[in-house]
Input
Amino acid sequence: MMEYCRKTRATSHNLPVEAPQEAQAARKRRMAALALADEATLEAEAAKFFDSFSYTFLRRPEAGLVMLEGRAGNSGQRFNLGEMPVTRCVVCLKPQDSGRAAEGYSFIQGNRPRHAELAAVFDALLQFDGWAEALERSLIEPLLAERAERLQKRAQETARTKVDFFTLVRGEDE
Output
């Protein structure tokens, strides 16, 4: 199967090089949800689907570092903020009921090879229309809802500590 992915590499993706912006945005949203997901959640969901396909590694999970850049005031000169560990993985997946293969990619913050592998497998699965709908409902939407809930909870906790300096009474008005 690895040879199959190499031979069809140019056409193995559901998204062509000039994919519509909506398709690119949807894939970006899905990949972000997978990258930020809990590894145990991905394992549990993978157990439901792993009998229906086989995959091989095009690039085994490997850890490395990326340089983070920042900008002063979001518009100033770039500066190196520091390095962050990441794990990347690329798989070639071929469902048993399909005549084509797809490549899945992942970049995960930290040194988490199994998480990177699972995210890449799900990225490949999401490129098949039949799988995409089921996974969107059972995995992606709950992950995004859970993340939105966590962010909202954090924002509420942070809002409680906000100080409004314009409402403080100064001692000059006596």
The mean pLDDT is 84. The CA atoms of residues 68 and 82 lie 5 Å apart. The chain has one domain: 2-15+25-158. The helical segments are 2-7, 21-36, 39-49, 113-125, 129-159.
